Amino acid sequence: MHSIGKRIQFDDLQLRKGNNTKKTRQMLEKDLLSFKRLPSNEDFDATFDMLFANKAIRESYFTVNLFPLNVNYFAKFAEPICTRNIRFELRWQLKLFSCYSKEINMFISNKDRFDECLLEEKYNEAYEILKELEKDFGISLWLMENKVLLFHMLGKDVKEELVSSMRQGFISTVINFYDMKASNEMLARDYEYIVRRELDKFIRLNPESAELKDCYTFFIAPFLFKMDDEAKVRLLNMICRFPLIDRYLVVLDIIEHYASERPEQTAPEWIAEVMDYLEEIDDSCATTYRFIISNGVNRVDKFTLDDSLIKGRNAFIQGNLDRCLELVKASVENGPADIRLYNLYIECAQLCDADIMDINISENKKRIIKNLNNIYSFEEDYNDAIDAIYKMCFWSFHARWSRDIYNHITRHVQPINSDEAKRGIKYSNLQRLTVDTVVENLEKSEAKAFLTKANFIEGEDYRLYSMAIVDEDYKMAASLCKVYQLSELLLLKSRHDFSAYRVFLKKKLPKLYEVACSKLLWDSMSNREDFERGIDYFIHLFIKREEYAIMTPMDKFMDYAENSSLTERKNIRVPILYYIYTTYFDSNNKDDLSIAFEDFLDLNEIDKPSKMECECDSYEKQQLIFFLRYICVPEIMGPVLLSVRSTRELEEERILICQRLRELDSLNEDVYDQEIKDITHKLFLDDGVSNLETHKIQVNTDGIKARIGKDLKSVFNKYMYARNSKLDVIIDTLKRFEGGENVSIVSLESSQILNEIVTTIRNEFVLGEEYGLDAYLSLNIRHGTLTGQLRAPLMGMNMLAEKQVETSEYKVSDRWLYKLRNPDNRNKAKQAIIAFTEETDAIVEYLKKELIQISTEEKPTHGIFDYSLTETEIKLFQNYLTENIEFEEFIDNVFEQLWKLTELNLNNMRSTIRNDIKQRYIEAFSRLQKVYKNLNEEFIEADQWIKEAQNDMDAELEKISDWFRRTSDGQYSDFELDAACQVGLQTIKNIHSSMEFEINYIEKDLSKKIDGGAWKYFASMFCILFDNISKYAKAIDGIKRVDCVLKSTEKGVFIGMCNQIDSSVSLDASKQKIESAMNLISDSSYLARAKQEGGSGIPKIYKILAIDLNMKPQVKCEINEKENVFCVDIGGDYK
Length: 1135
Fold this sequence. Notes:
Blueprint (H helix, E strand, L loop, with lengths): L2 H14 L5 H15 L4 H13 L1 H8 L23 H14 L1 H19 L3 H15 L3 H13 L4 H4 L7 H14 L5 H18 L4 H11 L8 H10 L5 H17 L8 H7 L8 H10 L5 H4 L7 H8 L3 H14 L4 H14 L10 H14 L5 H12 L6 H14 L5 H9 L7 H7 L2 H10 L6 H11 L3 H7 L3 H12 L2 H8 L5 H13 L4 H17 L9 H9 L3 H4 L3 H12 L5 H14 L17 H11 L2 H4 L9 H18 L4 H19 L13 H25 L7 E3 L6 E3 L5 H18 L5 H23 L6 E2 L6 E2 L11 H29 L2 E2 L9 E2 L4 H5 L11 H48 L5 H22 L15 H15 L4 E10 L9 H18 L2 E2 L2 E10 L3 E9 L6 H16 L3 H8 L3 H12 L2 E10 L4 E10 L1
Parallel strand pairs: 5-6, 7-9
Antiparallel strand pairs: 1-2, 3-4, 8-9, 9-10, 10-12, 11-12
Helix pairs in contact: 1-2, 1-3, 5-14, 5-15, 6-7, 7-8, 8-10, 11-12, 12-13, 14-16, 18-19, 18-27, 19-20, 21-22, 22-23, 23-24, 25-26, 25-27, 26-27, 27-28, 28-29, 30-31, 33-35, 35-36, 35-37, 37-39, 39-40, 40-48, 41-42, 41-46, 42-46, 43-44, 43-47, 44-46, 46-47, 48-49, 49-52, 50-52
Keywords: Coiled coil
């Protein structure tokens, strides 16, 4: 025994005798640290055994925290200080585990039983297991995680029974996160989002607390934890006072990382030495790590395969799929959960075309198998399957099946040879010692040596097959495999030939093999032609389902695109590839998309996308549709199309594109019709068509809702969960395990989520590129007519000096000089005009660049349009949040407050123009006037002209100040009924460009304008009416004619339309439709349903009148068979 052991005994004896001096305590700490750092394992073992045998020392320094009685004893007592050396700390913990191997074996056995009970839905039995473990081991984070889960499963109140009694900050925080992830209201993706955000916020506020962040991450979101040497040190330091169970699980994960680095990286020799401490522990994970990390000597003598799939895999290799399915199905039904077993079952079922759900297992296990099948095969509900299965994985992070699911999904869906796929392969073989562990986690020579001697009971063919795979002799493997699909795939793999993969993919294959072959095809790309075909195939898959992007080697594709020649950039695949990349992978590279789009148009000599030749062989139809639908949109086309000179022309180009898309992609006709409708309405509003007047200040809140609604609604639901669950009522500080200083803990502050929601809505409202206020100010005012409006009164008088580009000198109009004979006077007048020009130009620039700007707390400016929000102001939005409020109602409340802010800003803008700006012009005119008055030559006209110009400028400023208004509804002024009629007609004309329509107004009474807030509802009604006309009206001489009556009076509105019915229309069927519609709207329950669902056709018009416009509706439809005429009368009285 090393002398350090005796010193520790002496130090401890001094303390027990009452010599509790600072010096004695420091000496004991130093000696314990020296003990842990002993370089010789023999000395360490001897000293440890001697000290551990001493009950007083053992219970004071070795085991004091291993079995805490309750949560308030968690990590309560001091233990030997961490050496911050991985080797010494792992040796310490593993030696400790060897002393408690019996207890750990009991825990592992019960943990496996518990994990199985979860999947078997035996929640009461699982709870009994936890109670026994708590009785034997005390409290632990693992136990609390699973206890919280079972409380949810069994309907118990987590906060009432668990959290309320806790005082310890760290554990209460972790348990609150456990509570959140176990909730049925919390989706897996939402939990990940919240954890990421909270951890990022925590480290931002506490940059010195990386160690604590690692600990939080490991226990509340291990799927986010990045294991490296620094992280290992931090974890080992944190767990030195943790319970035995938690220590064991953490240490095992650290060792797992060393095992996962094989065979590329050899584990340090000391790891193999200290792993022997685990020899008495009966844990398949620990055994597997020991197997991989061992140096290969006597592996066969020391380790035995723990692989229940050998017999089934052997039958599979022999091509006996029915026998394999029978064996595997029986194992699934009668054995514990094993993801490898489930994978083989899925593969066999696909090959045999069997129903994977035809199996007698628990609903939880069925759910896993079904979702794995959908994920591996990239079925339509891929995203739902991912979320559902990850939600189950979140039940218990350390369950074997949970960890296996993560890793097997990764290896199946990620691109071949990607870092993620490689990591998934390595980690998916570590839960037990299987043939796959040997094949994929050992060096070739080591794997062959073990497989040669290992005992393959009823699995000789599988042994030979596995050895061929190790040798990468895929021809041999193919000859051994009698499953022809797999055999062919292995032969292709041996050739690594791109064209051969393409031929194979044309065959009818099980989805698993189609996905596997697709990944191999992309991995085999070796020349330009391969890349072009590979990318075309990817785009083909992506158009069907965007989730296919996950398994593609996007980095390889983008390398091709970035290094492509002009000839290659001429192909439509290049801009499509850039669009996919910038939309789904890296949104910071939007400029690259613009360049690729511009190159494509220029190289193909395309002036506008609407003029593309759609019938030629240059474009594959689906690629052309995708290009026109998603890439040829105003925000991408705008900076590129030089032939388009205004926003209106850009929108009209998009309408033409949508018309082409209706012809090319009739299945999505409704989508393009809606877009045409939206653009047409926007153009009418921009131009003030007919009697519809629009103010300068507009924000398209409907467009904003459509743009951000889906993503923000998810965040809103997270907030409501956090708020209603009161998860932000968590202790704000905790004592570090080292020292006594306080730091902030990770807590889910719902106020932070509310801040994010409100600022996102605010930013879209004021800064959104497409629909926001700033875009409107920029297009219509700053870069619109403002400069021209303010210069017009001055240019009319020739008062502005013109700067010569060639000389940078100013030229002043002779009008202001011709009467001046004295050269000195002429020069003074000339300089005065130049100064006046510079001053008035400066006023315009001041308005544009300083005042008519948006200011927020994130980006403060001197702008009048101040939308800065303080934390207090954001919290006021909580007042709108009833427990059952829907997101749509909340976003409308935020918009309402933003409009109130806008009104204040508009008032300030008008006041500034009428006062400050006007005063600056007055001063500029005054200085110019003074110069002319002081000249010693008579120039009376100049004084008169200046006064006239000043009067004109005052009028112009008043007009401009009036731009900064909005009507009470937020966007539209009161309008006449026929304006909405014209919008509906123009919309249908834009949708059906080949059709001609003619309206014959039988009667018009537009004595009362309609409130602007009703604009979109009336426009929508006319769109429905004209849509019906486009479908069913008879064309006479190529024109569909409509007789129309429009009335808008104090009483209400009336719309009447009659048209000839086309001969192709069945009158009986039409009558039946009309009768059904009229019966529907007469049903008293219809409006309640329509309020939620919206409806269509005549019932939708009825719903608009009754609910959206709050009118008393009257709707009448009839067919005059004798005259072959359809008439509809729509009326609504004001209440």
